[in-house]
Structures are given as structure tokens and as C-alpha cells.
Design a protein that fits this description.
2 domains, 4-stranded parallel beta sheet, elongated, homodimer, Rossmann fold, about 425 residues, 7-stranded mixed beta sheet, alpha/beta
Chain lengths: ~425, ~425
């Protein structure tokens, strides 16, 4: 097959630990195929296409490319910018993006991101078809929130789950040894509307008495009295309580327990920022139960803790990056690559695909059948689902006692 | 030398990652010496002596003892309880403690803790001398706050420093890739009045432009205007800002920026709990600079992250535990073992000792000469001090993707 044009890869949304591993997969696979002449990168997702910030990854040395595999953050930059609602290419944003894509002769676009980002990928793909621009768009599902539909799980989830579960096991032992003085710990995980990540903390538990004792998911409205009764019962039976909660807990009326509603606190997608749920519950416990409580907010460490990432997650991130390129070269377009779990043991996922419009902007909630009757824990079926995803430890390179990570040179691409 | 009596070991204050490694060192060394018949443990520091909760560590199997070496939390339980001010043995608490010590024929007491705990150790030692009770008390300096006097550094500091620095490097890369949307991250470390831990985050920095950009220590009063100017300047020059701060920041009048002053929020030592400094600064930035900011609060994960602990710290913790026993058998009493750094390269510390009364209740502030003129960073001399303390990685045992840790059987001791 002869040369067709250049490929462009972009990382969008907030990064998760293994997003650069997918970038690595895309680059390594693209290097193998003659149909692709240059491998370009878009700075900050769609922003690079709107602002003409396109870099030529051909200038990066092999060591840097290898280093990407185990580097947290988004090496090309993430973004909260998305294309606005119009699907028409006449829309000024889309027009700008297509001008840049043409300028660099981009024929393949690999868009790594979550459900908001898949919407942007879908719009680009749709507009290309409408205008007969020869562009193949393939999405790669990256979100530790794990809320993308049609894939067994999303990239980044296994690593975040592993880090959160390890942190809960360790902080749980710490809390246990301090029950007499500081009996309650609340650990808040990211995940706006879905409870996949707080749920995964259940992996830390070794027996009825060990952390975490209570898990609250955004899918289950929090009833304050029930919550306080749960905490008190646990303290009575165990001596203290280790609570894990998602950041987006809602009350019975569906209102966020701790939303900051000023404009500055909204992220670029217009979602209110949620941070205060731990402090809210902490105060509830201190006022009503007169028990000392503390909050752990790992925040972006959950998205970036490569020093204790899941090798399974990393391997799958590379695999999906590679497969995105292969699918594009097979002529597929407007799809997101997916992970399809095989029925048989041991755990294995093969790669599938789904139309972008089926996942764009949609949210996969935590399944009700995996929540216990009390609404304060997860079931063993969920544990069977999540357990294989955290297996294997990524060994980062260490220098002077700290992990060392790669940085791209970011050489601006030449227009064609 | 013939048998003299039993030894008792206690873990006090809040645990830090390697406190059980010192416990391991005490046990392994004590096992070697005939002068010590039984190795007993006090549950929750001094509380076990007040409430007659003494366990016989002779019932623990070898695998558990080995496992202690790399187990976070305080295996025997920590405490915020301390002996009150009186030094007289007639004081009811001291009387109770001595009744229990006699009941179990305790002749050696090893007390692992920070400066509050060294005060309790000192009082026990002093009271024993006053009443001619044959008790040798040796303290082991454990506090990741690193604020004990007369020792080069304290146990737990190296591991906490390593974990914080790695987290800052990783979260820094994450933040850097999101500058266009979420430019400011504030990471709050523990350390009430001293800035040793936030200072250590400077190890993460790889160049002028990388995280952390600004470090604020409790030793330097925060001037709001100056702080905002620092953040704005950094954002202008770098694109965003990664800020590390101690939890106990004070304003120009010496008031904590974010103290909760209700009774429940005071810890057992009567200190107000400090948690809100990140949220305080976050609001300051959002209101005044109109920039999106987020807070990371690693909280007790800093004290318990054995999965990325410092091997140097762990080795020293075992060494000091062993040496405490050796000193006791040499007849030393009323001392704390210390780490003395040797002048020559490579880094090495030998063990020294200091009278407990010289360290009890005293606090070693972060040295002013290691703070830059602007009051917003640390100097390279500090980096030379801290760098060797984080070297080497502890390899924890992993099962099903998570670290596995030891638990004591806690068999109650028989009175003599």
C-alpha cells in the first residue's frame, strides 16, 4: 500500500496514568506502516487543532518514546476544551480544526480520552464525512472513572483502582492503630457521577474488620441519618471506621452534597468542581457522633501514580493504541476501540470496536446489582470483575530515589 | 550475664511507615540476649501501661515478626495519650503505670515516638529513679515531622519525604499537562509547626519550570498579598503553579490560617487539628486571581505509604531498634538513641544517644538558612541534607496486585 498521508494523535480530557502508554502504542504501530508518512501530535487535545499547535513526533528520540510508556500526565497536554454542539463543518471551530488538519495533510486522527472527548472525536468524524474530507477518526477509551459504555473497562481504571486500594489498605492499618484517638478516616476518590473508583477500594479488605468498612457511591443518594447510623455501628463493632466515598455524592433530592457553585470552580466542560464531600462528612460525624474524623483527598495522585500502576492496565493501553492504528489502516472510521473480556479463565481481553456516536457523551453508571442492599458496600461479583484489572506492578525507572519520566521535545511540525 | 527481667516495647504518637521496623529491630535484638526473658508489647503506647493491656510477643511466629519490618501503621497501636505534667510517682497515672510494669516484671522499656512521646518516656524514667524502681528507659526517635532535636533526622522522615516527592513529581506532570484548564495545584503535607516535609518536596524538581514551584513552610508567616503575587508570577512564567505547603501555615500575627477551634477537632494532645489550609489557599487564588485551583491532601497516606518507602529509612529504623536494646543492656538509661551523620561521603549515620530530657517536648524548627530569601523555597544545602534519606526502594510483598502486611496475634501476657 502506498503512502496516504500523516497521522495526528491527541490526548484529551484529564490525563490518567497510562494515557501516554496508548500514545506510545500509536507511535510504535504507526512507525511500522508505510501508509503513514509523519506522526504528528496535537497539543492539548482539540486545542492544538484550533490553535495550530501541532508537533512532529518524528523528532523525538527512541529513548523518549520508550519513556512515554511509563510516564504519567499527558505528554502532549490534556484539555477541558471540547467542540461545541453544532455538527456542521461551517461552525467556526470545526472549520478551524479542518483548516489545520488539511494544512498538515492529516488523514488519520487518534483521539485518546473519555466520554466528553469521544463526543469531540465523533463530531470531527461526522463533519469529515459530510464534507468528503478523507479523515479516519479512531477513539481510544481513557478514563479512570471507567464510565465509558461498550467496553469492559477503560484505560487508567486498573491503575487508579490499584493505587486507591493499596492506599486504603495502608491508611486503613494506620487508622486501625489509632482507633482510640482518631477513629474515623474518610478517603475521597475522584469520579463525578459514577462509583467505579470508590468501589474498587473494596479490594483492600482482608476480613470483616479491616478497611474499608463503608463505601458510598454517587449512584446511591446519601441519607444523612442512615450514614451516621452506619458509621456509629461500625465504630461500635470494629472500634473505628474507614469510609471511602466518591466525590460526587448526592442527597435524596439529587443535589451534590458539596458542590461549589461559583463560576471559577467550574471545569472547562461546565461541570461544577466537587471537592468538599470529605470535609462535609467529616463535620457531620464530628458534630453528631462527637468522633474525631479526618479526610484524605488523593485527588490527581489517583490519576498520576505511575509508581504503583497496574501492568495489566499499561499493557492494555499499549495494545489499544496499536490496534487503533491497525483499525485505521484496515479502513475503519468513526469508531472507538474497546476491550472485550473473554469468558474463560485466566482473564484476557481482546480488542473490539464501537461506533463513536454510541459512546459519545454517555455515562456508564455502576451497576445496581453490584451494590449491597444497605447501599454502603459492593458485592463479591464486582470484586471478581475488578480483581484482574489491578494485577502486575509497573516498575518505573528510579534515579536518586525518585521515578524519572520522559518529556517530549515538542518540535513544531512543518505544513505540507 | 544472668536473666534480669522482661522488656516492654511501646509505639506512641501517630505511626509513621517504619515504626514497626524499629519494633522488629527491638524484638530481634532482644531475642538474642539472655538477660531479657520475655518480650512484651504495650497496646497503644502508654495506654497499655495504664489499662493493663500488655501482650506477649513471644507467641508471634517468625513470619509475622519478619512481616513487621515492612508493615505500616503501629502494629501494637499508637496513641495520643500522654502522661500529664506531674513528675511525682504519686501521680495516679504514673502509679498505675508502675503497678503494671511491676506486675509484668518489666526492667527495660523501649518507647518509640516523637517529641510528645519522649516526654512520657522521660517522666517514666525520672519517676523510676525517684522510687528506686529498676527500670531502664530508652526512646527511639520516630516522627516523619522530623522535628526531634539532637538527631540528624528522625525515623519515618525519609519514607514520607520520598513518597511526597514522588507524588509531587507525578502530580506535577499531571498538572503541567492541564495548565490551560486547571493551572494551580496545592499539595498539603503533614507537619504541624515545622516544614521539614513540605521542604522535601523540592527533591521532585528537575528544572526551573517543573514542580514544585513554590514551597511554604510553617516557619515563614504567610503574607497573603506576597503569596498571591508569587502564584501569579509563576503562572505567568511557567503557565501554571504547583504549590506545596505544610498544614500549619500561620499569618503575620502567628495565627493558624485554617484551624478548626471546636473541641472535637482537637487531637488527644490538645493541639487543634489543621486540615483546611489547602482549601483556604485555593479559595484565595480563585477569588483573587480567578484561576482554577485544586487541593491534594495525602494526609495519613504520607505516614503509611510502605509501597514506596525509603530503604535507607527502613534500615535505620531497624538499626535504632536493635541499638536501643544494646544500649539498655550496656546499662544506659533515660536516653533516646540518635542518628549521627558522618562527615565523609558516601552518606552514613552511626548511632548516638542523648538524655531524654533534652529532647522531650522540644521542637526542631526548619533552619532559616535553608529557606530562600523570598521565603517561598528551600536552598540547595537542604537538598544535600535530605537527598540521601530517600535512597533505596522498599519492596513490599504483593499478592493479587496489592501489598500484604503482617498482623500481630495479640496474646495477652501472663503476670509474673
Amino acid at each position: 500500500m502506498k503512502e496516504k498521508g500523516n497521522c495526528l494523535v491527541a490526548e484529551a480530557g484529564g490525563p490518567w496514568a497510562v494515557i501516554n502508554a496508548s500514545l506510545y502504542g500509536v507511535i510504535k504501530e504507526a512507525q511500522k506502516h508505510r501508509e503513514i508518512s509523519k506522526i504528528l501530535g496535537s497539543r492539548h487535545g482539540i486545542e492544538g487543532m484550533l490553535n495550530d499547535e501541532i508537533v512532529d513526533l518524528g523528532w523525538e528520540d527512541e529513548k523518549t518514546i520508550e519513556g512515554l510508556k511509563k510516564t504519567p500526565g499527558a505528554a502532549l497536554g490534556g484539555t477541558r476544551t471540547r467542540l461545541r454542539s453544532s455538527k456542521l463543518v461551517a461552525h467556526s471551530d470545526l472549520q478551524k480544526a479542518f483548516d489545520v488538519l488539511k494544512k498538515y495533510d492529516v488523514k488519520y486522527l487518534f483521539y485518546l480520552g473519555g466520554n466528553d472527548s469521544m463526543d469531540t472525536a465523533y463530531k470531527l468524524s461526522h463533519a469529515a464525512k459530510e464534507t468528503d474530507y478523507d479523515l479516519q477518526v479512531i477513539g481510544v477509551p481513557k478514563t479512570g472513572d471507567n464510565d465509558l459504555l461498550e467496553t469492559d473497562h477503560s484505560l487508567g481504571y486498573g491503575s487508579a483502582a490499584k493505587y486507591v486500594a493499596a492506599s486504603v489498605r495502608e491508611a486503613g492499618l494506620h487508622t486501625e492503630s489509632m482507633y482510640t484517638a482518631e477513629p474515623v478516616t474518610i478517603l475521597v476518590t475522584v469520579g463525578r457521577n459514577t462509583g467505579w473508583l470508590p468501589a474498587a477500594s473494596a479490594l483492600a479488605r482482608e476480613g470483616k474488620k479491616t478497611a474499608p468498612h463503608l463505601i458510598y457511591l454517587p449512584e446511591v443518594p446519601l441519607i444523612r441519618e442512615k450514614f451516621l447510623a452506619d458509621v456509629e455501628k461500625t465504630c461500635r463493632e470494629v472500634g473505628g471506621a474507614f469510609i471511602v466515598t466518591g466525590e460526587g455524592l448526592v442527597d435524596e433530592e439529587g443535589r451534590y452534597l458539596a458542590a461549589e457553585d461559583d463560576e471559577v470552580s467550574k471545569d472547562g466542560f461546565g461541570h461544577p468542581e466537587l471537592g468538599g464531600v470529605g470535609e462535609y462528612l467529616e463535620e457531620l460525624i464530628q458534630k453528631n457522633l462527637k468522633k474525631n474524623a479526618r479526610t484524605v483527598k488523593l485527588d490527581i495522585c489517583q490519576q498520576s501514580a505511575m509508581h504503583f500502576a497496574s501492568q495489566t492496565d499499561l499493557d492494555e493501553a499499549i495494545m489499544l493504541g496499536r490496534q487503533a492504528v491497525e483499525f485505521a489502516l484496515q479502513g475503519k472510521n468513526g469508531i472507538m476501540v474497546t476491550l472485550q473480556r473473554e469468558e474463560k479463565e485466566p482473564y484476557h481481553c481482546h480488542v473490539g470496536s464501537i461506533a463513536l456516536e454510541k459512546v459519545a457523551n454517555k455515562e456508564r453508571k455502576f451497576p445496581p446489582q453490584w451494590i449491597n442492599k444497605e447501599g454502603n458496600y459492593v458485592t463479591s461479583n464486582f470484586l471478581s470483575y475488578v480483581r484482574p484489572l489491578i494485577l502486575g506492578e509497573v516498575h518505573v525507572n528510579i534515579e536518586e530515589g525518585l521515578p524519572v519520566y520522559a518529556r517530549l521535545k515538542m518540535i513544531k511540525a512543518e505544513p505540507e
